[in-house]
Amino acid sequence: MSLRNELEQRVSAWAEKNFPGLVNEPWVRACADERHGHFQTHLAMVAAKATRQNPRELAERLARECPPPEGWEKPSVAGAGFVNYRVGPEALGRAVDTLRKDSRLGVPSVSRPESIVVDFSSPNIAKAMHVGHIRSTLLGDSLARLLHKLGHRVTRVNHLGDWGTQFGKLLLAYRAAGRPPIEADQAIDQLEDFYKKGHQATEADPAAMEQARAELAALQNGDPERLQDWRLFCARSAEHFRRIYERLGISFDAVRGESAYHEDLPGVVRELLDRKIAEVSQGAVVVRNTSISEEPYLVQKSDGAYLYATTDLAAIRYRTGEMKADRIIYVTDARQQLHFRWLFDTARRLGCRAELEHVWFGTILGPDRKPLKSRDGTPLKLTDLLHEASERAAEILRNKRPDLAPTALREKAELLGIASLKYADQLPNRNLDYVFTWEKLLAFDGNTAPYILNAYVRTRSILRKAGLSQPPEAAVKISQAEEEVLARHLLRFGDAVELATNDRRPHHLCGYLYELAGQYHRFFEACPVLQLPALRDSRLTLVFLTGEVLREGLSLLGIPTLEEM
Ligand code: ARG
Asked: Is 332 close to ligand 1, i.e. is its CB under 6 Å away?
């Protein structure tokens, strides 16, 4: 248990005993300014407000009646009614000792694990994955890792867009060209090209639009030749996605696209109508709820076509039924917020009892503060982005490590480039748009992956120099301020993981790791490790623990480590 949690338990027990019925929130936080203390609680102020008491007096009472764990200093009251706590050296030593023996490194396990579906990445077939998919892919992956770490049963789902209206236009152009072979190595370019041609044709000519609709209808009604073409498009696109996921180190438990729900759609609409949740309006089927928007939610068009919404309703049924999900988390960009409000509301009315969450994110901007584009104005392709990340990292490494053989350099550059991209993308609060710059993301100093990886690499090189055959086991003796600060920060790892998970914001973990790397550098400057025999073993333990926490933290962000730069 973390130091914070130890204190939290005491404080919340006191709250429950003296103020039953008070909202239940985390009462203990780390102090922003350590001159006041290591932890503080604002409980007295909240309780005083609820019961019309004097907050200072209540804080005094709390400090008196609710002593901290053994080995902590006497709490003090400050400001409008905060109670501040400070950990003593012995209690700290004990806690580090527990951490050292804990294979979870202080990360708690939830008492009630849930079955959670994380729906993320979910690109559309026949189109290249582009910069718009990266945040969903990385954020979804990290959330899945975090939730799994806390003990939930996580199913990672790729809800591919493989049944949408794009296939009408695509089939139209593809068939007009005589159904040529789609070459594996340039499949996506070819498919995008056909789509573009189909789109242009339908824009120019209403008759072509009719034809495209007819193509789509033929496909959706199971015409064998169209199905065969569609399967080819899907297989070729899957190849393209697979290569990208492989480079990013991302996997799924289920790749279940929109087409998988095709046969369930009429049933969904029928049920909505039977239960009077939907109504027919000008030939279309819609759901109304003016508290969400004046415009109703369209679940079937007047020409009989089903929509994104219909498929998502069918998918919820499958996931709560077949997959037994207690919770579904959708990771998409901010523009889909309205869709998900409607979806969740409609699913509730259909009796869905699982928790439904939309985890949304902002846009990646270019230096001009407009959505990041490639030079020709089209969305920046993920393949190009990954390529450039790796190339730029190679350039930096060539200067730093002229001794490296070309293949070793390539390997390191790939790891470093992708790590940098992953870290930079998860660093901003997900709800914000952020400006993308290569220089910032690959810098060795600053809040970047190279900086944090460098701290990890330093821990490894000391341990190698020490010549240990096994992880160090000595107890930690705190003899200098830098050690104390580092030790206390190591003990907060569990809090950071918990916060990042519960808040669905991996950036909290980035902040934690950045701080840890900084504290480690300061420790390293101030505290010789191998030179002082009396402190050597204790310091090696501290170095080792720092490395473990850095590695585990990065891996929860989907970032692998390396043993040397
Ligand atoms: N394919 C969609 C897109 O590219 C994302 C799907 C998200 N998941 C979902 N169940 N709606 O925008």
From this structure: yes
